[in-house]
Records
---
Amino acid sequence: MNKMWKGNGEEQQFLEKLLKDGVVNPSMKPSEVQRIYPQFNGFASATFRKHWNKTKAMLDATANHNDNFVEIDVHSPPSTSPQILAAAYAYFEPYRCVALNSVDKIYVIAISLAQNQNIKKANKLRAKLMCTLFEKNNCNMVVSNVVLNALKNSPSCSEIYKCSREWCKYSCTRILPFLGVNTGTIKNDFGNLKLAIFMNFPDNEPKCTLCKTSTCITRTFSDHLFIEIPVAKYGHQHESH
């Protein structure tokens, strides 16, 4: 004889916990969930399917009416930026040390994605990170802003300007979160991307603000480069990163 499903029984509570904690994917087939977890043995497949769908709908409604609910768009810069770093972590071994030793919290998300950890946990980390970086309801979610705020300690490049005269103590540092390219130099296949980046830097060094003479520039590049490339589309210029 098939078991009876109780609305507030142990099985219902266990099912809610699985979905809330992200242990099971809501897109899974109910028959697969029932096969994996022995707690659901003894229930008719139709009975379990009914309560599976009912519980998913109930939890979705709760989330959508929660004042603290944050919607994550997987195609938005806060999502795609960690995915880029996750790919570097997964496929380029030397970069793993960079990610593991960085104090920028965006790497926590990237590592969790690369290690195929709980997706719900990763989404919570993304939402938490964005809430710390941007004011509520004032999130300018463009890639440049995400890179600028989430990778403050890991910019693409830093420039140190020093006066060419030894007796002048002028020195300043310029942080470049992302780099541009010389559009007249770059080719369609990006084969000369390195040259296009260097050609985009100004030919003339800025003058020393103290003695008005020339300055010497030292550039230090990071282990990653976020590059801003204008892309022509439908007669307009778009930015691609």
---
Amino acid sequence: MLFHIFIMMFKYVIGLIFCIGVMGDSLVPDTVLQYDILMRNKLIGSLEVSRKTVGTVTTYQSFTRIKTKLLTPIAVDYKYVVSFDNELLQRANVNIWVNDRPHAETSTSWKNNQYRIVKNKKESNLEDSIDYTTILLYFKEPKHIDYCYSEQDGTMNTIVALGNHSYKKINANGKENLYFYKKGVLHHATIDGGVVSFEMRISE
């Protein structure tokens, strides 16, 4: 009888540990990176980006908050949510707010062997599969990669290796961003954010 009770308690404990493990796995990101946003060497904001993998699905999220003053005070918020399955892009959503008002929105979803891209309510399609996008630039140095997909613009961008672990990304409009890596992770970058341009450095 005591042995039976012990077995039941053991199964309960194992089940509880499993449930806690599953719950923890669903809540805790695998990796979180934080960056300071600077303009003319002045801190104007921050960026946090996370990577979470469950099975074959990896989800990336980034949140950026920038507050500065051009002619008038301006606050810009960026939110990215991007998911890959078996290292292929499945879905991406990008929202941008300016002074707490919606400014731009782009969604990308894989369906029927093509991507459906909706940018500010205008729809287009892309048939090529995508395995590298701009959010991966934080976590994976783009060695031997010539193109990446911009979740924000809904277009393919060109990547040019500059040597010494530095790269230039050129978007469809010819705007250029520069990226610099240490140990395979993005260390700092100069970004043309559309509404504002800034420098980004990993928080030490």
---
Amino acid sequence: MRSHRLLPVAAAVAGAAAVAVGVHQGLVHVASGYEGTIVTGWGRALNHEERLLVWVGALGVAGAVGSLRWRPLAVLPAATGGVVLLYALRASLHYALDPGLYVEVSGYGDAPVRLVLGAEPFLLVAGGALLVAAGVRGWRVEPAGAAEDERSAVQSSVSSERV
């Protein structure tokens, strides 16, 4: 097996790892120089959406591995990467529109607080992009059985011509 055929699997594994690490990070933080905390569910179990994102990343890896043998499975990592990208966009826009990011908002006790994006959306975008790239690259790579099937078809046509 040539190493360039494993590139989609490596990209999918890196993307799934970025998603798995990303869901454990904070979506928004209080900017430095401001006092305040954001009360979230961190430190506890992941919520339903975060668990689903990890499973979606694992499904993308399975699709990349399957695309080594059957090309249409390359759609799976691309689709799962799209889901991750849309989730990151939706989550970031939620905080950007409601309290406002990178602008002062009133916090607890009317003290000014500035919220900034944490590491989660950036890791999710990186993971989603790697999953999409794995799908695109997996579609372009020739499946493992294609070369063998072509060789056996040529051999059978040569042997039938001799008869």
